[in-house]
Amino acid sequence: MAELVLGVLGVVPLIGFTIKSYQELWSKAKTFRHCSAAVQRLHKKLTIQRRVFENECHLLLRVCIQDDGVVGAMMLDDNHQNWDNEELNNKFRMAFKQNYEELIELVHDISGSIFQIQDELDCFKVIQSHQQMDECLKKTWKRIGHGLKISFTKSNYEASLNELKESNCSLKTLREQSKQLQKPCKALVLKRPTPTAMAWTDIRRASETLHEALIQAWSCSEARHLRHSVKLFLDADKVDETVELGIAILCLGHGHSTGEIDLIQLQVKSRLLAVAHPRLLIPSLHSEHQRPKKRQKVVRFSGDAIVGGSAQANDRCASQYEIDSSCDLRCSADICQDFSKRCGQRAYSTTTYCLGHIDVGDEENYRHQFFASADLRKALGPAPMCPNGLVPMNSILHRAMEDNLSALDRLKMAKALVLAVLRFHSTPWLGEAWQLQDLAFFQYSEDFTQSLQTIHVSVEFSSGKPPQIAGSSMEDIRLTSRSPLSQVSEDERLLYGIDNTTLHCLGVALLQIDRLQALAAEDVLKVRRLAKTSSSLGPKYKEITEKCLRCDFGYGTDLSNAKLQVAVHDSVIEALESMIKVLDIDD
Question: 38 with 112, same domain?
């Protein structure tokens, strides 16, 4: 058969031949359709299958010919030069690769089914032999049809029609699969797992006990340090059973003048102790006679000098606290000086060095270990530090135009605020009725992106001469700034529909970042009216802002509920990350 020879030559001439054969079959069925109702039904079905086949052929040719005009010309002209183009046939071989032979086989099967139906229709040729001059075939059939016996088997042509239909479907499947196989395999992108609500709970508890530990153990004898401000950075994390927190301690002098501000940068690793450890601050009278027979190794501050307090006091502390390799900082007479000197000695060291630990807690026993910070993102420069480098978050509302604050920067700031709420809400670091100015960042030269990574919450306390006995020298603790919203009664909150104060304040902060204007959280009517207007950061940002204002996440209003925390993350954090990814070309 001719199609077998064409198949040997390649799939392109075979496709051209089959298109022509389909046309001939369709014309023959059209010619004899008045001779039999069965042929008329055959003609209708052939019209559909022919169109499906030609559409598939058009799509097949488009794989290798990126010009619909040329493809259309080939479909209309069975003598087009491209049907015999060997180069085009080679392109098909390259495109279909291991599927090329199957493609030829499919087109060959379609051609075979066409010829089977043509053979079935040949029985009607006898009518043409009785056709008179200028007589249409329909009249010839009416004139002699009753005297002719024509055998046209329905089951045969229906079987061939079904084969055509199945072959068309297989041809489509093969084409689509080959197209997909040509696409490069996408690199596997593992979605970052959503932090669990349990991890957020552990971070909050660790930050609470860290605050408690600093209150109980802090000591400073430096006369020029009138106040201390502890900055807790937002990028807290839980690794295995340890919570990692980054802090910076600013030692403030009189009037916060330049040259009287020292900066101590620390990394804190907090973990829950399984067994309560002894925490003797002062040795008992009989302690010298009750030492264990086999002592564990004790590692104290390295160096020749004992920093803070007498050498005898530090030796006594180290000998009694034998649970950990680090030193109990509650035995230090001047923690501020210890931190400052030891951080300075380790500034250029690549070795992780523990400065000491503080244990705290009655029901839950937490150990907070302090390390010299090695985080380059918080390498804010050596002390003393210029106070102008500390920027409250609400100042961006006035400096946005001057600093050329981009939409991308504002989205990153918004994400930082949501993380702050999830990690530190209901702690001494971030009160329930918090405000934008309760967070700040360090100005990092001209790189605002670098500055955003230093966003933090703070507590501030005065520090005079430390007491002579063990105890707290932290006085006048200043937590989250007092917002007028904190004075609003429960009835008033119900009246104005503030279902969750913390999330309402988050919504207000998000709205301020969007509109770059100061807003009072207690002015609920103004806030919600403004939230209804279009957002400069897009409709999705407007949606998540309103969700926060109304605590509309579908899991109640109690932020201690793990399901609500996860819903806030999924609805707000993921939406912000999606918008950031679109805008950040370096992502």
Answer: yes
